[in-house]
Amino acid sequence: MYQGKYVFAQVMNSVIRHEFNQGVERHHGHRWMKRFSCWDQFLVMAFGQLAGRESLRDAIICLNAHREKLYHIGFRTSLVRTTVAHANEQRDWRIWSDFAQTLIVRTRKLYINDPTFTLDLDGAVYIVDATTIDLCLSVFPWAHFRTTKSAVKLNLALDAHGNIPSFFDISNGNVHDVHFLDRINYEVGAHYVMDRGYIDFARLYTIHRAGAFFVIRAKDNLAYRRLYSNPVDKTTGVRCDQIVRLTGVKTVVLYPEKLRRVKYYDHETNQTYVFLTNDFTTDAITVAALYKYRWQIELFFKWIKQHLKIKSFWGYSANAVKTQICMAICTSLSPL
Known about the structure:
This protein is α+β, with helices and mostly antiparallel strands. Among the domains are: 7-104 and 313-333, no CATH class; 196-293, 2-Layer Sandwich (Ribosomal Protein S8, Chain: A, domain 1), CATH 3.30.1370. The protein is built from 11 helices and 9 strands. It has a 9-stranded mixed β-sheet, with helices on both faces. It is elongated and about 75 Å long. 35% of the residues are buried.
């Protein structure tokens, strides 16, 4: 008979406990509950995510069906649904947000030399986007989005090396995506790739002053003046590579520096794209290729919604919803 550890226990062994405990102490996770620890809460939620349980009751029943094995997979107390639900409602969701950031730092080191990223760039590449998670207005009235429904947004910056989340934030559905840019600590020399929904020239200028680069799709009504054009090879799909200045009444004040405008024709989709960037040294075809990597964050959002529980929630308060989303991200990174 096999006498080794259970698979779930082996997966959870990858978690460094002292890093976990630091976040618990920072946000006073054990202030109100002494017996049911934060670690027990994490194990219950992680099991529910990995086992694909449909509800918190489902996860507790499944675990209690093997009560004699609970000690061997890490639990040190009996499991009661109301206790877990109360912990999700009351314990600060930032415990799990901080823990997810700890796992992100450790996981990204494994993908520094990711062979799937083929662009020759010195700095990191981050893809910025958000996904909306719909909620029922009568059950989640605090997350008002539209007249007939509620929603929360998962705002995320994805590291293109390994497609690992590098930073995330959770906001109400009616908060515009562009506000996420205010909460990012920009890295010098890194590239931030965004869709045109993030166009805000004051915030783009903040990225520029931080020593980072952005690649963003331009809007059709952009007011600008061409200063000069760089030579291009139109066989690559690049139609023009221009150095421009903004001429709008407000935009010329918000972004007073020069910009680079790259127009690219994609033969596969038969569409023409116009990009703006403050990177004046990278080849124009590489700028276009950077934007193509934006599709990776769409695949990540699709994967996390299909394989983890972030569409149906096991609690109704804002804290419980944010806790479950953070737990899902922690669970996706823990086996790594």
